[in-house]
Amino acid sequence: MPTILLVEDNDINRDMLSRRLERNGYQVIVAVNGTEAVAKTLSDRPDIVLMDLHLPILDGWAATRQIKANLQTRVIPIIALTADGNAGEREKALAAGCDEYDTKPVDLPRLLQKITKLLEPVIVTAPAPPNSPPDPRLQQILLNRLRHQLDPPIDRIIGYSDLLLDLLGDGQQPDLCSDIQKIHASGLRILQLVQAMLNPVLLELQQQEINIFTPTLRLEILTPLSTIIGYCEMLLEEASTDLIPDLEQIYTSAQDLLSVANSLDSPLAEPLPWRIDLQTISLQSIDLDNLSLAKDWTRSFSVGSAESPIATDRRILIADDNESTSQLLSRQVERQGSQVTISTIDRVFDTLAAIPCDLILLEIGRTGSGLQLLAQLKQGEWRHLPVLILAAPDRMDLVLRGIEIGAADYLTKPFQSVLLQTKIAACLELQRRQGQDESFDSLFENAPVGVYQATVTGCYRRVNPALVELLGYPDAETLMAMVTDIADRIYVDRNRYADFKTMLAEHDRVTGFEYQAYRYDGDPIWIAEHARAVRDREGKLVAYEGIVEEISQRKLAEAALQPQLAALQLELANIKLTQQVAEIVQTDYFQQLQPNGEASIAGGATPMEDRDSSLQSSLPLKVLLVEDNELNSDMLSRRLQRAGYAVVVASDGAEGVAKAISELPDLILMDISLPILDGWEATQQIKANAQTARIPIIALTAHAMAGDREKALAAGCNDYDTKPVELPRLLGKIEGCLKRSISN
């Protein structure tokens, strides 16, 4: 008996249709929102999905895209069900990945015919062999290459904007600082997107190919990237000459990132810079397996006062093969008062022989290429020279290996200037305080973060003073004597400890694991932990080791944002209600109830025609900008105002429709990906209203996919442009639309 997953949030419709389908010989399972639909498709593997498009939590379009993006569910046919019979709805559903489309009220014979047609290949033909999982080695290589392309320009955007904020200082040129802070925040947003969507653990667990995620990643990157490019272009026109070089670095880096992002939608056959053939790869082998963190955990961490000033006579060697990132790091270090020497990885020993240094900043790379140099340094005459390693945030495994070999400390990129200064000061202070014969035990004892080793049964084998202080115990002996079961004594929720042990057993490493812990006095605190498994020669788990930091302040800040989120959700609900009332008011039935309801339209020129007749005499012309991203809205509205336009802003499709009616702008710039009511539907409503039908609309979208222009024009848009916005081109299209509007 074929199984149908019916995704419908209306109780009555769901009950009615499921019963009718069961009468026709189908087994029916139900889901009430898009998130539940994705989960049940993966867990229950139905033969077909009937997907309502207007769903809570996750709408039908997004749910369909997720189902079709998963190798395990992508072959399941989906029929879109919607009450919207608007032009373009079928094409929109098919573009999201639906295999068929039907309208409500349901015509059951017609729907059953479509179900039978889609199920026919499954029933008649033998089942296709299961898709083989993606080659994990190939996926890891592709991931590393893509991150290698994406990370440097992102790091430069964040680094140079942070450097500019440091140069300007507090209170100087507040408007300029505000714009640079927006660039910095957008750079951090891009970094978060890349880290989240290209998470190697996520790709491994879901057995997904990296190429499935890259088109979505491109779309997500383009909005904050548009913000960065727009603000840079504004600031390059008005900033003082001493700031121009750093702004140009940000702008160039943003263009480099745009070039990589635009390549993410290209087919696999194209030779993209991050795609490679396994046969052309020669993986570098670094023999580190014989090194065990359990043997000498005392090597792990640096000591020293974070408040120690950096002496101006200290020389720092930057070892990095990437010239652009080493130049940025050099600027940051010189800004803090140290002398800098730059070297490539293969020239470090020659440089050290010619120029004495007090500290090395070593980029270990995504494949760990710098670790081989670190191991050589710690075995030779420079073994007592402190090394601060730099790594991508998702390569904590390489960081732990670097610490094991003998690195004094580490930084994950990108980093704030103040954090770099603190780490350098601590390492230089370490170098000053330590003699060549000082044991590594002092490093362990004076580590600024909690460090421990524990048995698999949940007893601490060794702890450092920082962990004792963090947990509030009188001394290390008391801590190890009292904590005979970490799950019971330390964890507030024993289930979290079970989750931790499971992840550690399966993956040997756990990064950024967060949980609530009890202090000695019983007060709970929030902790983030990085840990690794220790195994014997037979591969049996014998212990685990971890780095522990308190994150209570961050968790409190996140909790403080919850009331604001609830208020925002209430505001969105009110906006939706207002929009629904506006739709009722615009119906023909309601208009006929109003006195003289048709006179204003039938009795002569329409309000829009009156508006057209005055376009040439009323300056400035009014543009309605419909954009949900606050930074992009601010940036583009300011640039349009500089070009001589009056700008009205709406943050979602429903507000865009309302303001088109109330403001009667001369032109509308309509973002397509909008909340509440997307740009396609907002455009159709504006064009369906006699008061606003003649207002020209230019669609703005980051999609830039084949057929998007035709789709925008079919929805009623007069023109189409892509993000990031190229202002001269957009101004030309605005002028052209206004001229055509006046002449008509």
From TrEMBL:
Cited InterPro entries: CheY-like_superfamily, HisK_dim/P_dom, HisK_dim/P_sf, PAC, PAS, PAS-assoc_C, PAS-like_dom_sf, PAS_fold_3
SUPFAM superfamilies: CheY-like, Homodimeric domain of signal transducing histidine kinase, PYP-like sensor domain (PAS domain)
Domain of life, source organism: Bacteria
Keyword Ribosomal protein annotated: no
Domain PAS: 436-479
Residue stretches making up the PAC domain: 511-563
4-aspartylphosphate carried by residues: D52, D671
Source organism phylogeny: Bacteria, Bacillati, Cyanobacteriota, Cyanophyceae, Gomontiellales
GO molecular function, one term: phosphorelay sensor kinase activity
Keywords annotated in UniProt: Phosphoprotein, Two-component regulatory system
Descriptive protein name: histidine kinase
Entry-linked Pfam families: PAS_3, Response_reg
Keyword ATP-binding attached: no
The reaction(s) this protein catalyses: ATP + protein L-histidine = ADP + protein N-phospho-L-histidine
Domain Response regulatory: start-end pairs: 3-119, 315-428, 622-738
